[in-house]
Here is the input.
Amino acid sequence: MPKVRLETASQKLYTFFMNSLPSGTVTFLFTDIEGSTKLAREYTEVWESARARHHAILREAIETNNGYVFQIIGDAFCAAFHTADAALKAAIRSQLGLQNESWKKLPIKVRMGIHTGVAHQGNTDDRSGGYVGYIALAHVQRVMSTGHGGQILISNASAELIRNELPNQVTLQDMGKHHLKGLPNPELIWQVNAPGLSHDFPPLQSLISISNNLPIQLTSFIGREKEIHEVEETLTTHRLVTLVGPGGTGKTRLSLQVAHELLKQYPDGVWFVELAPILDPLLVPRTTAVAIGLRDEPQRPVIDMLCDYLHEKNMLIVLDNCEHLVSACAQMTDRILRAAPNMHILASSREALGITGEMTYRVPSLGLPDLDHPPSIDSLTQCEAVRLFIDRAISATSTFSVTKENASSITRICHRLDGIPLAIELAAAKVRVLSVDQIARRLDDRFKLLAGGSRTALERHQTLRAAIDWGYNLLSPIEQTLFHRLSIFVNGWTLEAAESVCVVEATHSEGRSGDILYLLEQLINKSFVIKEESGSESRYHMLETIKQYANEKLVDAGESNTIRDRHLNYFLTLAETAEPHLIQPEQLEWLAQIEADYQNLRAALEWSLDKESPEASMRLCNALGRFWGFRGYWQEASGWISNALAKRMQIQSDRAKAAYVKTLYWDAHFAQARGELERARKSAEVSLALAQERADKKDIAIARYYVAFVGYLSDDNQDARPLAEQSLIEFQELQDPFWESRSYDVFGRIRVNLGEIKPSERILHKLELNRKAGERSNLADALFIYSVWHYTNDRIDEARKYAEEANTLWKQIGLNINSTSLVFALIAWSNGEYELAKSYYIEMRDDLGVLGEKSQRSGVVSALGLLAIEEGNLHQAQTHLEEALATARELDYRPFIAQRLIELGNLFYVLGKQKQFKQNLQEGILLASRINRYSKSSVLISVLNSAAIQKHEIFMNLLGAIHEFEKEHERQIRMFHKRFSYKQYEAKARDLFGDAAFESAFAEGQKLSLAEALNLALKTVEEM
Here is the structure.
């Protein structure tokens, strides 16, 4: 492309412009004036002024829609946009502006093309105009060139991006698929129809009507822009051009690409003659005649018929793979060129044909990056050899990408393979089985490594099973055995897993073919196995149809149970090896490993239950317990654990009894998480009793912790306190920081409830313990609690800071739901950002529903109800609050029930339902009298939210009581609701009753206990 023409002398402005250019996925708009050369000659006096006006209209439309004019070539504009819809709007605005302009006698009509592709900023040169991305730039040029003045054409790539976002009354008209110059496959083109623009145009000026038999290429053509141009130029001065070079240099692909580029220049067509399958030299003329559509004439030599037919033709013939038929090709070519003066022949061969008038063009290797000065990744990916490697690697494994880690290995591969396309393609294909670094390291034996190119099936595939049978029958017996056994894996496997589970015994004659890696590579090469990279490790899997077929073969071979047993043993060992690491600083690596094989672990669990192996079932549940907790798989975990415990009557060995103890406390863990406190209590107590029988110190401490935890959740603080304290002491003696932190958390909560310490003391000590331990889940929980504490003390910035830190940690370990959303929702609510707060609550509600968790979900749904009241949506508020109350009753958790009753009662008052209001508040306050003081505090705050109470003089007494309690005990907010604003309520009371009355009543309230304050509220409600 011609050099960029800057329309400003300011280098600073130019630098700013270049830095603003869209990069990566870019939408281009190219335009030019139809017949501009003729118009310039015929309208000399007005042409320049008209062209200037044309430029102004286009520039205004493009820049108004945030586009960048990066090149102007004569009257042709090249513009780039960040989005396809912006390019579309600019094109429509341009055409309307041009159409509405008064051109007098000068008929200015502009054709326009839009395409979206990959391009990056580059140095300004004669080709790019500031962009590197020849394929995308050429593509949009081809789309535009098929159109007519006044017409806007758009490629299918861009059309797909804007199809659902079209401006009002703008439509896309399907113009069909068209062969475009230089593009190997037909392109679906769309015409933009918009109000005020013409819709009717002549047929598109594509290559669709030009006769040719050029084969459709199944892979993209990479690079070679320079070579294409040079071969095209050579063909203009020489009628025979032979592309020569060693095997693998890409002669055939280059000749086909040149042929596509030149289609328009040969009215009688471009014809491809494939000579590779031909072994008899006498068949060369006949093969050529058949390729261009000629039939034999009786009693006449084919070469004579061919020459007569071609005598007046303006045609290009592409002779491919001439090296094994050089003499025959030379003789035929010489005869044709002498008989047909307008004929051109483009041949490819390892050696020249050696006839008069032939011009040989040696096909070079692909361009290589500089090893001495390694380029950036963006620059590296523009190098031809690297671009080819990347393209073919992506074809082999769609998730492949260039990274800082593998960039140097890719560079080494391309250099060591001398930029030869075939070698690079074969190496790239190996990413199915090896990492890029492994490929680079194995290139010392490159001819062994780079074997096994693609094959073409010779039999028709009549049914799906027949298609798989055909490939399966080509496997060796030992490959078939591995193929069967690999079907035992679910959602993939590692090489280590295959080597352990699918051991294949090789016979002496098979030699190294018993090596799993070697056999696996054969299955990958033959498309039975797919390889993908997961982090730094390669994983493998089968398509589900192939896997099912292989599993049938495994059953037929009578090996299914044996291989499933191996599979269970391998993954049980993996899970138990990972389990202790899941609560250590290195937990992320092990969590990722369990996550990658989680489907296999599920399958192993299922098999252990099917085969009545309770010990294996429970051991697997115990090993996965922490993983389930981190991922939020509470409901699934409870299901697996229940099934495993159902087999407990078969427990005999000491190891099985130890597993039973652990499974019981894991059952307690997930039961309490889901609000099933009675189930949690029973399992924890049985676990503790059995652990004490076995005298296992750690199991005793953990089981005791769960008994204490369930006691705390049930408001049984006095009985739970010694248990929590003892478990804390035991974990300290065991020097287990993870469990020490967990047990202190429960012990600290109990002590706060009993009034022994203040919340801030517990929070800071909890945070200190977890900072030292370094385990992410406990530390995230401590940071979350700390953020809540900051929020209650009006330190919003600190609250957000610690919540974000906690959120980061929880996300690192893959927790599907975490409590930081509550803090973010509260901050948004306090700032009046109701929609944002609502989005946090709705996301939490839905996630908790999926997990089967009810207690937290009750609070979240309640918060949605209270938020709806503030927004004035009372009907929606009632729906939410009634659902929250029903869930609290289902859990039979008194603090939640009391709070939900009063919240719903307050809504009934606003709705004018006095009877329901009184009933709810009475029941809620009575229930609050039987719960701990912190729950009483939450209930009293709910009472203060009542519009009825706020109009009564006791409102001031209640404010005094709650203020005194909050001050003394550093009371925290109710977790799911908007923060209690004492100052706001005080201002309202002073306004209603006056300062003197407020001071007196408030002082009286400060003398009341929470129980007395609630009794006063109850008496007042009864009198209303």
